[in-house]
Amino acid sequence: MAGIYIHIPFCKSACHYCNFHFSTSLHYKNELLAALLKEVRLQQSFPGMEQVSSLYFGGGTPSLLENEEVNQLIDEIRTHYNLVPDAEITLEANPDDLTEEKLQGWKSAGINRLSIGVQSFFEEDLRWMNRAHTSSQATEGLELALRYFDNITIDLIYGTPGLTDEKWQQNVTKAIALGIPHLSCYALTVEPKTPLDKLIRKEQYENVDPDQQSSQFLQLMHWLEEAGYEHYEISNFAIPGKRSRHNSSYWQQQPYLGLGPSAHSFYGNERQWNIANNNTYITALQEDRIPFEKEILTPAQQVNEYIMTSLRTMEGLDLQSVDDIQRKVLQKGAAKYINSGLLLLREEHLVLTKEGKLLADGIAADLFF
Ligand code: SF4
After folding, report:
1. Index of the ligand 1 atom closest to the CA of residue 14
2. Model's pTM, two decimal places?
3. Which domains does the chain show, CATH number per domain?
4. Whose CA is nearest to atom 2 of ligand 1?
5. What is the pLDDT of residues 142-157, one digit of tens each?
């Protein structure tokens, strides 16, 4: 099974922390969509796409698209790829775009899962992040969306300087009370060259506190476990049956095809990524070219990628899926983490404990070949 990702590179405004590829000018939206439709056709022989079980509209802000534009893209995908009848079709939406008309349009276009960028239910946090929506739009938008969709995930951010533990608990409690079946929760990361990075350097914004982030992550795991959510990937929690099929395929090294500027694709030992520039992307597609770079992963890079992604999942790293020599090296490297209670060995799988999850990237990097 494979997945297709479509990147919609437009946003109403720039969130301070964001380092995704997007433009706040919609000036070339029509040209960009024409280019995307062409890329859908040109990439139809991408390997591994015999059966597509998930389609994901990400960005940027796909909810800025008109319903007709979403329809056109899905129709074009259905025409050129074998999208299985029960495919998961997700669209990322911002709360300020959640209108009755859009929700109805998405539903009839075949969207069956929404990923909503809430981030916080507190007005002051949203202003601090420079989000385009308000706190009341988040609540009202979610209530409206739940009338049309039962498969909804929201993003929440913790570890922001103004987010006390009480506010963090209120954010999580509110999501649970609303009946949101899937949560993606991220510690605020200060990415280089973002407005947030600049504001912190100029001392206009307070820096993040890693201890606050660790403690809020531990609290989060506790609350959501109590509420019956599976912590199936380090940042992702789902009520049973509501895991993201699309994202799970990334973590299981399934092939995926990324369409649109900056989108990444993966098949076997090959990884490629489109240029992260709207104008260059449009011009290239007008000339029937796909502007991408490609990398062939070495065997060591492939195993390292597996270590990194599998350790982040609830199932962990399957020692039977690597060769004998690699297994011995991994067992030796993991021993000190098992002894210190950061890793568990469970039915031939290395699984991070709660405390281990706080150090996931470092542990994975230490086990790399
Ligand atoms: S809406 Fe999403 S993609 Fe756009 S700037 Fe904000 S975080 Fe980035």
Report:
1. 5
2. 0.96
3. 2-251 (3.20.20.70), 299-367 (1.10.10.920)
4. 60
5. 999 999 999 999 999 9
